[in-house]
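Exercise 3.2. Students should predict the tertiary structure of the chain below and write it as structure tokens, then compare their answer with the key that follows.

Predict this chain's 3D structure.
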Amino acid sequence: MTRLAQTAGLNDIQREILSTVRDFVDKEIIPVATQLEHRDEYPTEIVEGLKELGLFGLMIPEEYGGLGESLLTYALCVEEIARGWMSVSGIINTHFIVAYMLKQHGTQEQKDTFLPRMALGEVRGAFSMSEPALGSDVSAITSKGVKEGDEYVLNGQKMWLTNGGTSTLVAVLCRSDEGHPEGTAPHKSMTTFLIEKEPGFGEVRPGLTIPGKIDKMGYKGVDTTELIMDDLRIPANRVLGGTTGRGFYQMMDGVEVGRVNVAARGCGVAQRAFELGVSYAQQRHTFGKPIAQHQAIQFKLAEMATKVEVAHAMMVNAARKKDSGERNDLEAGMAKYLASEYCKEVVEDAFRIHGGYGFSKEYEIERLYREAPMLLIGEGTAEIQKMIIGRRLLEEYRFQG
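Answer key:
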């Protein structure tokens, strides 16, 4: 039997990329991840290593200096990175979503300006939809952009911005009633604005403040922040795609591939939890033999491995569907929902296998136990995924009475 979560049908380039990333994870991420996480320290050296590997430009077309790889290749790389430390995969993910949105929806000028520097990691992306009172109801966004001459004036407060401090380009979703008469559906009067800024905290450009890092239970190292716009002025050519009113659809397109990414993260964390659990079970002895020889532990390992395999297969299917050019919201929703739920369960089983030692910060499983819950929320809760899945199923299986 080969290692869990193998992917059939990869070409030589894909296998070489994944081998390189896995080697980097084993040598450069896993040995330092827990220490950096406990200090809530940004992984600067790791990020520089990822830049050298070209991962910031993995899906950016070759004409802009990227590698031009598929969503599947990217998702498999994210799976490997999350296996080492999920926070690092979050740094890559938000950057990737902004690059993807630019590639799919940006004007030619916007692509020429940002994508080559994003491919090198010189420009680092973040995106923002959520607000303090928003939750999952994107249509209730109150942040607003008003046109004044050749500029837009932005006001509002955004929340849960991954890479908020370290990013230099933020895609922000705001209401923009200009050109959209009163009574227009909320999702048709939203616009994505591209905001350039300096890295850091405080007032990072006139009218834009990043207050500081939000202290979190897990998912540490990566900076998660608020974003406050107070009469922030940006040029009109920084409307994504050049036309207002399309922001909701642009963001949903980005989130759709982001859900594949979150599924990949869940797969990676679950794989690492299984590795830790199966290793510890063969080292720990009780009643005169390794606990791996007790049937109760073998049952746990069997369930964990099966969940890892199933989640991986669904994630791969969702990525391949998107790469084919087909709509994949059903597959992405299913993959994100199942992978995040299974990840939580596999991590908890590995935690149980460790017994009391799982509660100690000296053991890696303690970190995973705090990281896994974030995946239940990121890119849409389980309840949101079920709504998406249910609506799509009713479209596919419409009653023909």
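Discussion points: The two ends are 49 Å apart (CA to CA). The longest helix spans residues 247-283.
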